[in-house]
Amino acid sequence: MNFAGIKVKxxxxxxxxxxxxxIVSCWYLKLSKDHETSLHMHRHKETAMIILSGSARLxxxxxxxxxxxxxDKTRFGAGFFHKHAAINGDCELLEVEYPxxxxxxxxxxxxxxxxxxxxxSLENFVELTKNDPQFVSGRMxxxxxxxxxxxxxxxxxxxxxxxxxxxxxxxxxxxxxxxxEHGVEIVKPGxxxxxQNLLSLLLNTWPDDRMQAIVIWNDRMGEQNV
Length: 226
Fold this sequence. Notes:
CATH topology of the largest domain: Jelly Rolls
Distance between the termini: 33 Å
Low-confidence stretches: none
Helix content: under 10%
Structural class: mainly beta
Strand content: over 45%
Mean pLDDT: 96
Radius of gyration: 17 Å
CATH superfamily of the largest domain: Jelly Rolls
């Protein structure tokens, strides 16, 4: 299904696809105050969730929960249940999925009666407005958080760029992988890493040529050298 130019209304707020390169898809989620997503999982795809603004309570698995704030990030493997609830106001998130399959969804429990039901239907789709966040010239702003897409011709240019990033930046790989000397994928598309961890990984891995990434930072860190 093509989600370009549309916003999906949800019981808890809304979401819209802001990036899709045919490999990785990124969705912006607006979670309204005192609302929550379903407790759900994805049978086949992996997802990463990054808080862009506000705060939430994250439930990991069927029982445990903890508070999270910007720029906290969490990775969920296939089959892992999770739920986000907005606390202290609205919460904005970025969901990264790989492989792309929006209909890969199983809702286990839900406060709005959607347990066991599939992804939203066409009646929930509306056109985007000028106020909805989107990448413009490779950048997107959400509150005090900036997201920027970056392209690399070869492995050396990616490694050199990564070594210059501030430690608290988040790097989402959207094309290409970091591989061990045996050719095994250590970091693959859809995964989000702190730049300081990425730097450590580059000591024992080699990036592919023609890598692509989204780098994320908060304005409190100042303008970034990206």
